[in-house]
Structure formats: C-alpha cells, structure tokens
Amino acid sequence: MKTAKSRPNARIATLSQVAKKAGVHPVTASRALQNDERVALATREEIQRIAREMNYTPSSAARALVMGRTETIAVATGSISEHYYANILHLMEAELTASNYKMLMLRSRDIESDLLSIVSTNAVDGVIAIDAFPSISDLVRSNNHRMLPCVYVGYANPDWEELSSIVDTVKVDLAPAVRQAVQIMLDEGCKRIAYVAGDGNMASEAEVRSGVYQKMMGASGHCSEVLNLEINTYTSNHHVVRDRFKAYVRRHGHPDGILCQNDEVAISVYRALLDLGLRIPQDVRLVGCDGLDYMDYFDPPLSTIVQPAQEMCALAWRFLRRRIENPSLPHQLATLRAALKIRPSLAAAAPIE
Fold first, then answer.
1. Would you say domain 72-174+309-338 falls under CATH 3.40.440.10?
2. Per-residue pLDDT tens for 122-156?
3. Where are the domains of the chain?
4. Would 15-67 and 175-306 be classified into the same CATH topology?
C-alpha cells in the first residue's frame, strides 16, 4: 500500500489542517514544528508526527500569516568591504539563527529607501541598525515615530539624544579609550599627533574620536592635525589611503603619533609609514579603532580600540526580541565601553601577545 508521501499527486497539507488534527491552535502548531521550547516536548513530538503523516511542508508565507510575524530581521550596516562590518553581520546572523530567525541584510547605496520599503510592506519583524544613524533617523521622522520595532547600535552621534527616547539603543562609548590612547602618546613625548579620517563627517569635531582628540590636543597646548583623506566610507580602499597619506607626509613631514578613524585606515597608514622608511613606534606611534583580530599579526603588532562586537550584537537582539514580544515596554538603553588594546605600535614596552 502506497503512503501519501509516495503518491506523486498527494495533496500537501496546510498548517491549519495539521493544527486541527492535533487539536491545537495554528500558532502552537507552528511553534512545535520549529521545535520551540515554549511548547511541551510531548506536544511538539505529537504535532511533528502528525505533520509527517500529512506530508506537511513548512511555508514561511503561511507561517507569517498565522503568527503575524515573518521571523525575519533587517540588519542595516556599513560597507561589508570593511572587515569590521562583515564580522558584525556574521555575529548578528549567528544570534538570529540561534533563535530560528532569518537575517535580511541592507547594504545598498540607498538604505533609507530600502528601510521605508520593508516597513511599508511588513517584510520584516524588526530592524537592527548598526552605525546607520542617518538611515534610522530619517526613517523615524518619515513615519511620524510610528514604525517597526527597531534597535540602533553604535557610537554616540550629536543627534543621538533626540532619537534615543524613540528607538531602543545600544550605545558604544569610545571616548575613554580615545582619551587613553592620546594620553599615552603625550606621555611618550609625542609633540605632533594627528587624527586620520576617511571623510568630512569622520573628521568633524562632532564625531567622538575626532572631538575627543581635538579637545585633548587643545588642553595639552598642542595643535590639532586632522587629516581628511576624502575617500568617503570606503576605508578598505587600502591603496588609496596609502598613496594619499604618503603624499601628505612628503608635503608636510610626518606626525610622531597617529590616531586613525578605524583599523582599515591604520593598516594603510602602517604600510605607508614603512614605505617612507619610518619606524613604528620609534618614529611614529600608531593606533587604530575597531579591534580587528588580525591587528596583532603585524610587525610590530598594532594597537587598537576594541569595540565589544559580540556583546553589542547579543544585546541588540535581546532588546529587539523583547520589543517584538511586548511593544509597550519602557525604552531600552545600554551603554558598552570600548577598550584600548595597547600593543608595541603605541608603547614599545607593551607585551607582545
């Protein structure tokens, strides 16, 4: 005797039919078929057995209709050509996958338009925006503060206070680590410390790294030297950063201490300094920012301000999931601190890992 599964024209059961035969609500059936532990083990096993017998094939569209959710989260972030953002997406996807959610990556040249589209079509259950402040700010304003559950993750922005009362936020405080890095350079006798950025926004005093640096230089009686390489957000264009920095040094001489916008810039500056015959840290002390894992593999190992990426992603998903489950929750806000990893590029006596 042929089973329903072996018959080529066997009718495929729906989730509602599986739920009806099991005597449960479709939501319970959907959760059981995803092995959700909120459903008792015996009930899960029984519903899964019935689904197999009825030749049930899960449908994400049908499940979304039943559950009122797509179990998909949009993640907006910076350019994935940068290792930092690629790693963030990897960590974020791992968090979502562990909860049986899917990730929709938003990384086009028009994130604002993409966000508006997915919000208007209810294509996702929520949004996590990592260092995508303008996108989220515009989205909030365009929707008159009515929008999908959203969490913003990133360093403080000048307009952050305005948005923080509307959007759940995981804030990363870079300021203490930046102060520590600049102070070490001053203590080591640096007289000409420069800050190297990829564009005007990152070079602006309103940006936390640039702002802290400029205030410390003024307070210590030294001149600020902010170098804007004008490469926009694509700091992973290492050859461009390298060539422009070398051209700058040939015209103006070299600083004896350098704080870089991120590790991608620091790597390019490192290579440029070696090309010019300069020694690190004897001639120039160098610090990056982000905490890329391969900064330790240079000679000398490169110092960096480490952002707590794993904790950022876990906390962002925790906040968003709570908001999805309970839209009326009080505003959620957490502040994480970045930490300076001191290596020989900053202080010659620093231990080599």
1. no
2. 678 888 988 865 556 566 555 544 567 889 898 76
3. 15-67, 72-174+309-338, 175-306
4. no
Name the pTM for this structure. 0.78
pLDDT digits (tens, 9 = 90+) for 16-45: 888 899 999 888 888 888 777 888 998 989
CB of 81 closer than 8 Å to CB of 50:
no
Length in residues, the chain: 353
**What are the structure tokens assigned to 318, written together?**
């925790």
CA distance 30 to 33: 5
Model confidence band, residue 316 (pLDDT cutoffs 50, 70, 90): very high
For the domain bounded by 15-67, which CATH number is listed?
1.10.260
CB 153 within 8 A of CB 175: no
CATH of 175-306, picked from 1.20.1740.10, 3.30.230.10, 3.40.50.2300, 3.20.190.10, is 3.40.50.2300
Select from 97, 174, 106 the least CA-distant residue to 136: 106
Cα radius of gyration (the chain): 26
